[in-house]
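ok here's the first one, seq then struct tokens
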Amino acid sequence: MKSAYERALEKLESRGISAPRQDALDEEQRRRIEEARGRHQAKVAELEILHRKNLAADPAKRLEEEENYRVELQRLGERLERDIERIRRG
């Protein structure tokens, strides 16, 4: 008997959509990915603290600070994704 996941994969493949990769990660890769995610969370927390501090200090520059905050969050997220992909490749 097939699981719901297997039936969903078959349905996607029948529509021409390939199944997601299921690369097995070794223990070292998992550990390094967890470390990278932990560093990312710490940087995001630090960024949020600085962001809140800057908003309270100068309300006139609120829009500029909001945009800088969004850009920096995106940059950190992209960096995390690159790091994880590099770890997965070995």
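and now the second one, same deal
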Amino acid sequence: MRPNQNDLQVRSPDLPGPDSFTDPKMAVARLVELYEGATRFLCEHFSDTMQKGHPGCRYRAFYPEIRITTTSHAKVDSRLSFGHVARPGTHATTITRPDLFRNYLEQQIGLLILNHEVPVQIGLSDTPIPVHFAVANDPSMSVPQEGAATFTLRDVFDVPDLNTMNDDIVNGIYKLPPDGTEPLAAFTAQRVDYSLARLAHYTATDPAHFQNHVLFTNYQFYVSEFEAYARKVLANPDSGYVSFVSTGNIEITDPDTPLSLVDKVPQMPAYHLKRADGSGITLVNIGVGPSNAKTATDHIAVLRPHAWIMVGHCAGLRNSQSLGDFVLAHAYLREDKVLDDDLPVWVPIPALAEIQIALQQAVAEETQLEDYDLKRIMRTGTVASVDNRNWELRDQTGPVQRLSQSRAVALDMESATIAANGFRFRVPYGTLLCVSDKPLHGELKLPGMASDFYKTQVARHLMIGIRAMERLRDMPLARIHSRKLRSFEETAFL
């Protein structure tokens, strides 16, 4: 006979109560203590329950949270786009994996304390930790499918809850709870946990390897060049790069160490050229299509990168373009459709000056061309992104007319999605594409035509992306994370 779930005792770990902190390092240390205590409790009882069956009680542990209350209307430095709350009141956010986000949390908490001159409160939230996420960091443990265990999992442990795992905050539709507590961060702990699990699945690398600067590409050719560059800089002790991580979490520090092939290539493999402070470069091969682009950026966004840039191939739409020319997007025609429900098409996606300048300067540096001469190989204009890879096979009257009216100079399937999600998630974004075919002018992407192009242009294009990221890395954080991506009443955390 199954026990009545309403009558079961709920057991929780004995952890410290809420406390106030004016030292961000001590605040994060308490977050780590609370999180590790909660997940250890769930893992231990999960393992025991899987061996012995239903324990006759429920096990529940809670995410830690950061909470701050301000009472002053004093105006914070108006140049700042983050690090302060918009108005007096109580603001809070649940936290997961404080070990992974330690530097980020110390930075954001430190800014709050500095700008408002009040302590932050660290304690347990009222949001339970799903057992799936609690055991996710232990490779020896896994949660069975429903029905595989001798008991119903949700009768004993909490499971993921879509009510706390959505994008309402970043989409601007979040409803305040009855007590009026406002969100302190863009993502809840459950939303972050969900994306961390998805990232490990889709990219076959641990989220801990991801760096603050992310390059997206839609071709495998760039991966080999990225690895070659990684080996080159690892051979230089003054480069600042310390290791290279490939699919399957294979990490090398010696430039001559071979990388073994993995048995199964993931959907969107990621490669990480790491620096000790996380300011290195991650390359993600998202493949082709806006759905992949949305999936990748949906999940990478929770890591709060400082910039992401698309460096892929595109169709050139102007007869004056040549194969191998570059396109620097300053506007996007969104025909990809995958984000229409989250970000209406009437929302403008602006070009970001900091990214545009970094990319243009990188092109000039890599090509040794300047000013007017640079126009021979690079166009700045609208990039159209579509959701139909074979758009050329449709009646040309409609598509070509729309492309001409939009003043588009290039077409691909990912750039608008990446830019739009960057805008939505407040992650600085940009696009530099390379023309690989001209379908409107009889130059199709065929094997014989493409081979020479790939050999000569991929290395140059990738290096431009890397140089741009290195420029952005040296830029003050407050400059790249500017007010352009912030709405009327933003969360204090980036």
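notes on #2: The first strand starts at residue 9 and ends at 11. Residues 286 and 292 are 6 Å apart (CA to CA).
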